[in-house]
Queue: 2 jobs
Job 1
Amino acid sequence: MTAHKPGLAPVMTAEEVNAFLKQVYPQLNEDFAAYEAVAVRPGGCTVRLNASERHLRPGNTVSGPSLFTLADIGGYVCVLSHIGREALSVTTNLNINFMRKAEAGPVTGECRILKLGRSLMVFDIDMTAGVDRHLVAHATGTYSIPPKRGAALG
Amino acid sequence: MTAHKPGLAPVMTAEEVNAFLKQVYPQLNEDFAAYEAVAVRPGGCTVRLNASERHLRPGNTVSGPSLFTLADIGGYVCVLSHIGREALSVTTNLNINFMRKAEAGPVTGECRILKLGRSLMVFDIDMTAGVDRHLVAHATGTYSIPPKRGAALG
Amino acid sequence: MTAHKPGLAPVMTAEEVNAFLKQVYPQLNEDFAAYEAVAVRPGGCTVRLNASERHLRPGNTVSGPSLFTLADIGGYVCVLSHIGREALSVTTNLNINFMRKAEAGPVTGECRILKLGRSLMVFDIDMTAGVDRHLVAHATGTYSIPPKRGAALG
Amino acid sequence: MTAHKPGLAPVMTAEEVNAFLKQVYPQLNEDFAAYEAVAVRPGGCTVRLNASERHLRPGNTVSGPSLFTLADIGGYVCVLSHIGREALSVTTNLNINFMRKAEAGPVTGECRILKLGRSLMVFDIDMTAGVDRHLVAHATGTYSIPPKRGAALG
């Protein structure tokens, strides 16, 4: 199944995305060090949270806000990598389902661009973790892409 | 990626599901004739809406409620086919994103069971239509599975 | 609490909205006869589903798709009544939670406009039913408002 | 309108909730110091994020993850205050819409319990900020309440 429009092509690599994130969010480097773009491909991307003690809740499970942040960054990387640095996009909606506990360690997010229109980008993300790569959470979200250029915010 | 627990296995075929739907929803046969289970597989199923004039809105696009119904039936078929006829399940949440216009004709829904727990089943569905099988809508939903047995409602 | 921007004011009455719906959706009159705008006010509106046998599921509860339709119409009436007949708006997202069974009879939907921007309208709706007016469902949704004028679709 | 079951009554005060949160989340005190329960009432509660520099994104707007956390805590306080310390509840779904930029300063969350069943609690939250108390975000969520007692996790 083709989940994206033919011709959907990235304009930035994962490395360029990571460098841009560090530059745009200088005061957030401490928080963001754990999040990174791993791969960018036509119509999607892979992001990762390297979950450590600070991302855990009692029961040693990765916290909901940490998984929400991974999903939100996944959507932002989708927009950024397919539209470019001038993308002034903001999250308008995010719906997340939590399925299983995620242990400390890498949580991988596979993102699909479901729609890339002129003013909206819709995506979903499968978040997997653990040695068995079980699905721990799934989210769907929308980014608004205003027509004007300017500094990006997440 | 394995999106479902190992060992997740259907207990009903698509034919058995369709026969059961007709029996349980006698007064809805007129509405439901357009909806059917096409395939059942471990951890998911395929459903279809054969969209005709009555499912269209101005602009000749399949209506939002028709696509919502396809998603809701997709989730119900996931529960029914993997738990069996005694499943007394009800939809508790459904989040749907509309991406593109869907023309009259078949709308195919590919469903994944994201979680099948003791009391909740979480699923998502890709809905595609047209000669190019573009993604027209995507939904995520939750069915509650009460512990008692009884007649099923959708 | 003021949930809407100061100055948000309707440009159509409930009667004008109902007349417009009948005109724009001629082939849907049979379906739509049960749905109506009851009141329009600054920043919101009230809609109603007069649920009869055809809207019920086994167990004599109003079906999920019928409640989804009420929510979707509620959002459309929000846009229509506050922007006007030229509004070319489409639902992009709708998230619905089902709380309790709704009996046959009137289901009332109280809608709030959470945001009315240039390109997006966000709303929520409380759906109540029964002699005790219990909350049976709640939904949040987004309508996209394209910049061009033209025939409206729901 | 009564959005909750008659007789819905809190079993903990806001002060007791705050003391419990500090005890259960010892390693998160740094993060959680900015979040607090302000009031508990039958069928709902008020929570607050005292947003400072660390919660901001470029453009000086409170970040999406910070607002998500406020919503998530609001739901947890709903469960905790109405069921008690033994509540072993976890978030299963959260849907959030971002409407306007929120400045640094207090962000107030007004929570309603939409349903408090045996196994699920559904709530929504209006988040307001700024001198005009504009609505900056709205969320709806579900907490699962397992039948067993034990240590709570958020």
Job 2
Amino acid sequence: MTTIKDVASFANVSVATVSRVLNNKGNVKRETKLQVEKAIKYLNYSPNDLARNLFTGNSKMIALLIPDITNPFFPELASSIESAANEHGYTLILCNTAGNQSKELTYLSALRRKCVDGIVLVSNTLDSKQILESGIPTVVLDRETDFDITSITVNNYEGGKQAVRFLKDIGCDKIAHIAGSDNISSTKNRKKGYIEMIKEDPWIIENLIVPGGYSAKESFKSTIKILTTHPDINGIFASNDVMAVGVLEAVKSLDISVPKDLAIIGFDGIELGEITTPTITTMSQPITAMGRKAVDLLIKKMQYKNDEISSEVFQVELIKREST
Amino acid sequence: MTTIKDVASFANVSVATVSRVLNNKGNVKRETKLQVEKAIKYLNYSPNDLARNLFTGNSKMIALLIPDITNPFFPELASSIESAANEHGYTLILCNTAGNQSKELTYLSALRRKCVDGIVLVSNTLDSKQILESGIPTVVLDRETDFDITSITVNNYEGGKQAVRFLKDIGCDKIAHIAGSDNISSTKNRKKGYIEMIKEDPWIIENLIVPGGYSAKESFKSTIKILTTHPDINGIFASNDVMAVGVLEAVKSLDISVPKDLAIIGFDGIELGEITTPTITTMSQPITAMGRKAVDLLIKKMQYKNDEISSEVFQVELIKREST
């Protein structure tokens, strides 16, 4: 790799002179400048991070850490963040963490060395101390963290309540819940909303909450099991759309008619819910607006050194489709 | 940002001494070493790329450039590459290029500055000269490029032929094709395979090839259109599984029975094809093996400076499901 030293030695000038030319700062004779530029071209030199950071203070790169690239919600979120970042002249790199704390920490440390300008983080394992230690401006997206860091979330608790209220409004009187993990604030709060809405129902002594493992396959299995034990269930609230797809396939495989005999509602608003038969009703998150907001807040931190900590909470919206 | 110079000045030693401590090389007095380590800890110093590269010659990071993060094929491929990379002690970063040449070049140049050790590239716009110019060890995946660079692909032409042959074997005598773009070698070759298989059919004068835009929605529209014009079509080969899902939904919306009146086959073998009703027959790519091979070949280039150019061609496999 060509270094700034090589350029200096080739051009027969000091490293400081090369840096002045690179940054167009300070007094450099025209002739010397041409000499340095020739050396840069000849050696195919590209200023690396250290140089670049010493000189300009930024790399024009943002990293996005997401827990599961195979759940379409995150690619859709990544696309919206990428568009917003590109509009501001930033390039986005993606890091898939599998929600694994040691992978998350490895990324944070690697990104720090790589001098990424900012980070958008979706994590349910790190606390704000661990995040702030990296020293890189960061906003947390999708999942609540403690309060020392700027976050963008949706009102998952209210969304959960609204989903169940809607199922009740259309006549469901025994509603099951396909849940995410209690370690993840977003799905934990959706479950809380579900519990709040059903706590006075006569069948409350039976536990109608089953785990969906964030996958259509897991959710398929759990749905088959709970519908076999409780054939009188006539509404299911799945904690995300991917799991709602699993519910739908399970219900169809049992020859139960949707929505006549059983209604299904998901959460997220990903495109997948529009291509199933029937299409799936969902509590839709404003994915584009959230991505845009994350980038806006990050830009303020990166470019204007804004230290303010804010919590943006977006509202989810009921989108009625054929499954209810 | 703390630099190696700050550490040296804080510890009252030379930069060279700090570098010897960082890399555990050369003779450094125990006392001096402790002093440097104290300075590193106190200043929260993390060696950046330049330092790290000068010292150890690698960043232990691989980048993967993919054209469309919202097509589940690429997240599945990324996951397999990530597992293989992690096993070798490498961290993977993902770059979503939208198949846009200027974005691809921006990434290559940014990654070069960031001193990524290697790149796995899925691109249909760059030639090998542009790729090799970055100076970073690179393997090309999924799409054929010219021959100056190591590539991992599947036999798309044979796969296309096999898909159509299977539809004929089960009795389809009028087969349409939902195509990708001719700019992309993989889907272009699948189309070639289709054409080869139908070129002697009596209905060849009618053009039954329609564009699917790599999305379920586009493919849905194209399918409705072609089935309205040609209601006697009884088989459809979609150039990828996402488009096959669009075909399935379109066919169902026209109340045509699958597979009784019309059979559908896709390409890729993504999980999505297993959760539709009916499940979708596909020409499956060995996604895990391809990802693993890409990392293996890249490791050879990165660690053993292997300059050999190879072309690995994997075979696709017919997976029969309910849509045929």
